[in-house]
Amino acid sequence: MKRRRLTDRTMKKFEEYLREEEKSKATIEKYIHDIRMFVSFTNHRNISKKIVMQYKRTLFEKAYAVASIHSMLAPLNSLFSFLGWTDCKIKSVKIQRQIYCSKDRELTKEEYMRLVHTSKQKGKERLGLLLQAICGTGIRVSELQFITAEAAKRGKADVFCKGKTRSVFIVPALQKKLLRYAAEQKISSGPIFITRSGNPVSRTNIWREMKSLCTQANVRPEKVFPHNLRHLFARVFYDIEKDMAKLADILGHSSIDTTRIYIISTGAEHRRKMEHMRLII
Asked: How many Å apart are CA 260 and CA 52, to the nearest integer?
């Protein structure tokens, strides 16, 4: 039997394939990172179903969360399909759908407002506006580049992500803030959220700047990351509209199952709803 090894050349070809499939930059980076972890585990051994199963068991032994293990095995199965090594594919980890999330991870509207106010107090005008742009539209942090001076003037951004285009509306209050900031920064066209060198602000920089607000805003650091703003948008929108299909379109989700993850309530809220049922005599 021909020996199976994952070389740098193989990885580059797979990375090119992912780009052709129009996977997002973040997705490609995660796939390659997870595959390299597996390659390190193999230690140059011949790749077989047995090795992959050993790797899966090791992930459990290291106490990774079930959801994390599921996401780490998916890139391997995708790679094996690409290479025609279908006999190496392994069953994904089944995850029971959560009906509520941890209160320690959910960013509340009040905490979000404290973050925005704190950014203003610290003189971080761009960061405060950026927080409002994500939370006020529901866009992904990677889609901030589509919030341009032209989009602000139209009150609508045309977002292209994962091979699809969707329209993201910019409410008048946010539109006014964006136009004022763009004028102050002398940005007449192109992305509004840029660095001094004119490049779009990176995910890493946004994450770091957001974390710097935690102490003064009195918000737990584990709650403060860009994607949580998108989750907050989803929960607030759903509380008003109760239309999951519409929310999925706004967020750019291909599956409503993904949207459901965004709107799960905390355990405390779930407990209150059960108490309001008043079924205990």
From this structure: 31
